[in-house]
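for the record, two folds in this file. i put them one after another cuz i was lazy. first one right below, seq on top, structure tokens after. the second one comes after a little note so u can tell where it starts
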Amino acid sequence: MTPSGSPRPKLVVLSGPTGIGKTSLAIALARRFGAEIISADSMQIYRYMDIGTAKPTLAEQAQARHHLVDVVDPDQDFDVAAYLALARPLITALHDQKIPLLVVGGTGFYVRSLIRGLFDGPGSDHAIRTRLKQEARASSRQALHARLAHLDPVTATRLHPNDLFRVIRALEVFELTGRPLSSFQIEHGLAEKPYEVLFCALTLPREDLYRRIEKRTDQMFEAGLVEEVRGLLDRGYDPEINPLKSIGYKQVVEFLSGTMDLEQARAEIIKMTKRYAKRQMTWLRSQPDVLRFSCNDDEAVMDQVADFWQRRGLPRETG
């Protein structure tokens, strides 16, 4: 029960690797059941970053109400704790209004922390963090990530080498405790269940997904990805801020700086996106109580969602 004594909020989580079609299905679900969508995407929270994040277009957002999109500017700090501070009260408020809720996104850390709670772990150690940052500058982020892969392969699988903050945090936890961060998270995993959850994951054979990624990358360039990145730089954003180091933006920044040509940037985006999608699929396979659906079988998802909501006294289909 919630603190007010009411039943726990019910969430439908729709996840899956990048490029698999979460947005279109989420909008179809929202329209059919009168639901609202809460984004669980760590990049779509940034303003002015639309094309490279595959953010729902204004036309798509007009079809179903979206939350936690365009929340902060690219140079503002934002992490999973900040995400939870916004998402938790929002879920409570919408639940009190008896509005069905869809959590949609492929950022596994956001999804897991939302539905199972955030593991804080041991306190930080400034000296360790400073040393690890110096090591990253002296060698490379990839070298730190490789060390983490040796010490904590489970955590390393879900983290990109450029996610220096979380790579350092995982190494810091290991140095402080002698245990991998993933072991603490597994222990914590089922300790907190603030919501009743139907967790749906979209799937597609890997080669089919990779073809979609290639096509979507071309569509992003056609839609103006280069102009979007140039606009961010013209606004004065430092190319070293974390959002501009993410897949797609980093490569276009390098193109604009003259360190790679456009075809090299395209090829690198496709390669890194495929790697990211592979990590997302690995993470989803490791999660308990996930129902997997072909991304080409919308009706199967619709039926499962209808059963979940209708058995729990939420509004029936709106049309």
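(here's the note) second protein begins now
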Amino acid sequence: MKIVLFIAILLISATINAQTCDCKKEFLYIKDFIEKNFAGSNDKVNAISKQAYEKTCKELLNLSRGKFSSDNCILIISQYLDQFKSHHIGFLPNFTAKIDTAFVNQRPVFEISNKKLKTLRQSSSWEGIYYHTHDSSYKIAVIKDKTPLHDYVGVIIESKLPTWKKGLLKFEAKLVNDSFLYGITYNTFHRPKFDGFNLHDNNNMITGDWRREGSTKKPNPPASIIVRPPQIDSKKLSDKTFYIKISSFDPNNRATIDSILKANEDLLKTTPNLILDLRNNGGGSDFSWEPIVPYLYTSPIKTFGVDILATEANISGWKKYLENENLSAENKNELREKITKMEKDKGHWVNIENDQIDSSLTPQLYPKKIAILINKRCGSSTEEFLLVARQSSKVILLGENSIGNLDYSNVVQIPFSCFPYTLLYATTRSRRVNFHQGIDDIGIAPDYYLKVNSDWIDEALKVLEK
């Protein structure tokens, strides 16, 4: 049984004041730690070239010595981590949920002229005026402002909250491509967090529920009255097709997935078609999707093995997962065996998962065809499932490429040396990278691409029942 560890972040209070931290020391600490412990460090640096990596690091180190480096340090570190282009590396805040008045008072204020605001209201690019669809407290202006730390900023232009005055930054980010920014968002308490921003819905929406002012689409209802769809659901669509939706493979969902499959066992064994809707499923644990595999199995399943960089920090991170109450006794025993292998060969790459060919299952007559709906928010353990599923002659993938976030996996966490944040990073490397079959930044392609605005379930029905 293969284990893909999941993140279980516990945010705890921290009494450290960021103003007392030295940004240069923190930057060098994170840089040294990542280079020694992140499983994708060498591959990622080689991909951008050692020279380009060192040039960027030198520029960021110079910024970390600046007069206002303490205020910008989290942004400087996010720029450093962004070089690795991995969704399995980042950080989370780790401090008490309260506003530091001294920090707020020293934040820079952006002045935007009325003439510029008028121009922004006519824009259809990233620049523009946006309101928050779930929180009427804010309105922001997104403007282009190219500096070593950001290309665009989101500036408060209207606020009902006294702690968020006009001119304060709500976010700042670098341009990755025409529709994606990467940087930080300042939360309610003015503390920065790692974030990414997509421009979508005909350039009228920014991820995070910021809608362009004047767009024709009606705003969403307040968050307090939004009815969230269940993470796991099922229904019969027709006499020929059954439907299962799974929005997360979080290990806590394993019991629900089991119960859905058992409750509908007779239908699954007699219905020709199955639609498995995995849209927006960012992953979790292989443990959660294992019960689905018998229904799609048609031939031996091949999987690449995994190596771990057996450093003290990585071993310590893995030991913490033994405290997870959701792991079965069997999985904990496997985990202990892997940790023992690491401890015997510290400082080296250790094979903790062999390449495998699993022929232990028996093909089932039903379902005969399985359509799996995927989109660009499918990642991590969900992609591991897709690599297994697409080996079945029953399976058809429909939608769009997955996110591409699996080659470097099994995330652990450590605190920053001084600033109140927790660093997250991957400890393992898939051996498919050795055979040029990596999927990071590429994703898993569907057999049929679907238009974003079409009814994907209806499209799947057409493919299955035509």
